[in-house]
Specification:
12 strands, 11 helices, alpha/beta, ten-stranded mixed β-sheet, 43% helix
Length: 307
């Protein structure tokens, strides 16, 4: 098995089929099909099921994705190590993140990383649950994962660095801002208000449902899976939104008021990575994460929690 076959295999996976993969690789589609057939012969199992014009991964194909990415990533790392001797720092780093950590602290960490590693390509993919992040890191599909959870994340076999605690806030609909002056509200103050809610299973949705369960007369008017829609919906006057504090700077730049919701609930944000076989780019990114934690601890002071 050679790396060219693995590269072609991953191209079919990443581009959803043989035609687009061939276009991306700048080769003829029959040549790509022949290469994949050779890889399947080497392994003795089919990697794709051909359904019409679609190529759907077989169970064996799904198992190969992670190891294939590891091989290609190690090859990139080897090339980068040799190039570094000539003063060249390049490569690729695959990251997966949940939405709120993807705003902060990921933005700040990427900004710090790219200042020192200008030639490294960062590929950031999306996840919506901690389990998706954990599986992606464990399988080798990505090297770095950012996840948020109501409780600290503990994963056997995976390194976990706690980054920060993000308190839940209310992003206030300016057309229905009847809250008292001040930086915070109580959960019962949500009574009589219309809310934009995240999908079930999220910490933000739990807070809203907990308020409802305790007799707070609030109303969910929109359920949103794609959180990029939330600020526009608040700006349009649809309702208030319960979100982690990572959204506050964006809300403020949009002219919206935010309020801390008491008693405070926190989203515990952590960065995940494999314990070994990390590329130089991944190790460098983890150093940036360490600096982020140190800066947050210094800002918080010795007697305060981060966040």
């Amino acid at each position: 098995m050679d790396t060219r076959k693995l590269k072609y295999f991953l191209a079919v996976v990443d581009h959803d089929g043989f035609n687009r993969a061939a276009e991306h690789l700048l080769i003829a589609q029959p040549s790509l099909s022949q290469t994949i057939a050779g890889l399947e012969k080497d392994l003795g199992v089919p990697l794709f099921h051909r359904i019409g014009r679609r190529a759907v991964l077989s169970e064996a194909g799904k198992e190969l994705v992670g190891p294939a990415r590891l091989v290609m990533r190690d090859l990139d790392a080897a090339q980068s190590a040799v190039q570094a001797l000539r003063g060249v720092r390049s490569g690729r780093l695959d990251i997966i993140t949940m939405p709120s950590p993807g705003i902060e602290p990921l933005t700040s960490m990427i900004a710090g990383f790219t200042r020192s590693h200008t030639s490294v390509l960062l590929n950031v993919s999306a996840a919506f649950t901690p389990e998706e992040v954990i599986e992606s890191v464990r399988s080798g599909s990505t090297e770095i994962g950012l996840a948020g959870s109501p409780t600290p994340i503990r994963v056997p076999g995976v390194d976990v660095l706690e980054l920060e605690r993000q308190p839940l806030i209310l992003i206030v609909n300016p057309q229905a801002d009847t809250f008292k002056p001040g930086p915070a509200i109580q959960r019962e103050d949500l009574g009589g208000h219309r809310l934009i809610a995240s999908q079930r299973g999220s910490l933000m949705r739990w807070l809203v449902e907990d308020a409802l369960a305790h007799g707070v007369n609030t109303e969910i008017v929109v359920e949103v899976a794609h959180r990029t829609s939330i600020l526009p919906l608040v700006l349009a006057g649809v309702g208030h939104a319960v979100m982690p504090s990572s959204w506050a700077p964006l809300a403020h730049r949009s002219g919206l008021r935010t309020l801390l919701i008491e008693p405070v609930s926190y989203l515990e944000v952590a960065i995940l990575s494999r314990k070994e076989d990390l590329t130089p780019a991944a190790r460098a990114f983890l150093k940036v994460a360490d600096l982020h934690v140190a800066a947050a601890e210094s800002k918080a002071g010795p007697n305060q929690s981060i966040g």
